[in-house]
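Memo to structure team: turn this sequence into structure tokens by end of day. - J.P.
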Amino acid sequence: MAEAVKSYAPAASLLRRGAPSTAVYRHDPETGLRLKGLLNKTIIFITHDFDEALRLADRIAIMKDGRIEQCDTPDQIVLHPATDYVARFTAEIDRARVVHIGSLVRPLSPPGDGEPVAANRTIRDLARQLVSDPRNHLPVVDASGALIGSVVRQEALDVLLGDRA
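Reply from structure team:
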């Protein structure tokens, strides 16, 4: 762990990390993500492992022939591929594991009622609730507990069940 911390010690606000220094993220993702939060730096990972990118990244750039095809959040890349190449690249991804309920939020009309769900939860995390909850709209709260909008339950179910609307 000490070696991992030393590798992030430079004062630069932008760090590029390749395979050797990303080992902490691969073998202990929770520690790696805590380090990322503590450092308050932009870290660029270069990887060919799309599942790894989905787990670790706030934003992903997918390249083809030296050109960026799409640069966006993991949620948006799997929900709205920008090109046919990106669509093929993401076709086999379990969208429910990647997509957070917050990425489906709509303005508060209708606001939904009852117990809210946290924006940072994935559709997979909320699967049982989505299947059994009779409400059409679920209120969504941010990390501070503030209401940020609502989710149409059917749209979340479509992601869960693999329907591509």
